[in-house]
Design brief:
- By secondary structure, this protein is mainly β.
- Strands 21, 24, 27, 29, 30, 31 and 33 form a 7-stranded mixed β-sheet that branches.
- The chain is globular and about 70 Å long.
Length: 471
């Protein structure tokens, strides 16, 4: 067990032509929201001052980057000015954008070269909690700190006293508080990914969450880590999950009151502060049983905010997403294989069969449907007709968990291990545990070639990536 307190800090162009309606056009009554993002090298005070500042890559001199906050149905205009010494892109994770705005190098756009600019424009159709990050060398660029929140506000938000965003991450740091290099180490590629020893909230070691009795907080959680999965428990409280990946769910407590948040996933939680003045409670991360630790602490002030809790409705209005028609759906099975301690003997690599040893020499350890990806331009795993309903049965044949993300669409998670899910959640990233299966259903209504990959970024970089074509 590694303590993460201050006392014991261990510093260690799409291939398809664009469809006629693939380009969104600003409507006459939509508000415009304009922003500039500047990816660059910077420094941040991540750990106590005596250790000095950490060199990071950041947007607008901050980790996380600036919170982009817009209203639902706003026209969003973001100019990215690349001040890095290498190319980059920006992907708007979970936002249903036109294919040309998706930020995948070569597949949907040319990379933004050093000193160049690229303008992203789209309508923020769905309210919810989203985020942005690069897809050029994402294993390293995200790992060095390039990410930020993107919040799309509901027209009629729920009643809360405060809204808080927590962007969760972990870092591999030296004793001098600098990032350990070796991005893409074979062990990280073939095992659980790059899991760091120092966990941060909003780019810093966690500060206690100071609250008042009777207060209601909306907590937006975003997991920006390369590989760490969080299993968050709020001791002494009964928080309600109200949205996953930006989309509403019926308010409820998750199984065992653990909020399981894989890389790229988001959760919106309502916390009613039921403790008494002067009390304190731990917030625990227990996903990895042998590495259970206190992520943060809830600390009550001496005076209550109110005597009685708020009783207003906390259910969010649904986003307008086309409902899958399961009686008309086409079904496809997609298998994920490979990795350490697995049984995969080999896969297709660059158009030829390679055994697992030959794959490993080239830095590839994973496959989807028998193909280990190199680069972003790939033959599609599945081709779907625009407007059709698809059900994808995702089967994890490996010894490791995989958060699987589909670009350009949200999907309902309808089954796990062939059993119906209780809430049929809308998501864009679904965590599939070892030897587990999940069935996802969606309407393929956004034309283009869409990236489909594991969001443990080391897994993506070493083969677990594919393309879903909507034509």
């Amino acid at each position: 067990m590694i303590s993460r307190t201050r006392r014991n800090l261990l510093l260690t162009t799409a291939t398809l032509p664009l469809m006629p309606f693939a380009k969104q056009v600003r409507s006459a009554d939509s508000a415009a929201s304009s922003h500039t993002l500047i990816p660059k090298v910077g420094q941040t005070q991540m750990v106590p001052e005596e250790y000095g500042k950490t060199v990071v890559w950041c947007y607008n001199d901050a980790v996380p980057g600036p919170t982009i906050r817009v209203k639902q149905n706003d026209w969003v205009d973001i100019n990215v000015v690349n001040q890095l010494e290498e190319s980059t892109t920006v992907h708007w994770h979970g936002i249903r954008v036109p294919n040309a705005m998706d930020g995948v190098p070569h597949l949907t756009q040319p990379p933004i070269a050093p000193g160049e600019q690229y303008r992203y424009q789209f309508t923020a159709e769905d309210a919810g909690t989203f985020w942005y990050h690069p897809h050029q060398q994402s294993m390293e660029q995200v790992g060095r700190g390039l990410y930020g929140p993107l919040i799309v506000e509901e027209t009629n938000p729920i009643q809360v006293d405060r809204e808080i965003i927590w962007v969760l991450d972990d870092w591999k740091l030296t004793k001098e508080a600098q990032l350990v290099g070796q991005f893409g180490h074979p062990h990280d590629l073939s095992h659980a990914g790059r899991i760091g020893s120092t966990v941060t909230i909003n780019g810093k070691l966690p500060d206690a969450l100071d609250v008042q009795s009777g207060e209601r907080i909306r907590l937006r959680l975003i997991n920006a880590a390369n590989a760490r999965i969080f299993g968050i428990q709020f001791e002494g409280h009964q928080p309600q999950l109200i949205a996953i990946d930006g989309h509403p769910v019926p308010p409820h407590q998750p199984q065992q009151n653990i909020f399981k948040l894989a890389p790229a996933m988001r959760m919106d939680i309502v916390l009613d502060m039921t403790g008494a003045p002067g009390e304190s409670f731990s917030i625990i991360d227990s996903y990895y049983p042998r590495d259970r630790y206190q992520l943060n602490e809830i600390v009550y002030g001496s005076e209550p905010l109110r005597d009685d809790l708020l009783t207003s409705n906390i259910a969010l209005p649904p986003n307008l997403i086309a409902e899958p028609q399961l009686n008309e759906a086409e079904f496809h099975e997609i298998t994920f294989d490979g990795g350490a301690m697995g049984s995969m003997e080999g896969a297709m690599l660059a158009g030829e069969w390679a055994d697992i040893r030959s794959m490993a020499h080239q830095g590839n350890f994973w496959s989807i449907n028998g193909v280990s990806a190199t680069g972003h331009i790939l033959e599609p795993l599945v081709t779907l007709k625009t407007g059709s309903t698809a059900v994808l049965k995702l089967k994890n044949l490996t010894r490791w968990p995989h958060p699987i993300h589909l670009h350009g669409h949200s999907f309902r998670v309808i089954n796990r291990n062939n059993e119906a899910t209780p809430h049929q959640e809308w998501q864009d990233t679904v965590l599939i545990e070892p030897q587990e299966s999940a069935d996802i259903a969606f309407v393929a209504d956004n034309p283009g070639d869409w990236m489909f990959h594991c969001h443990i970024l080391e897994h993506q970089a070493s083969g677990m990536m594919g393309v879903i074509r909507v034509a």
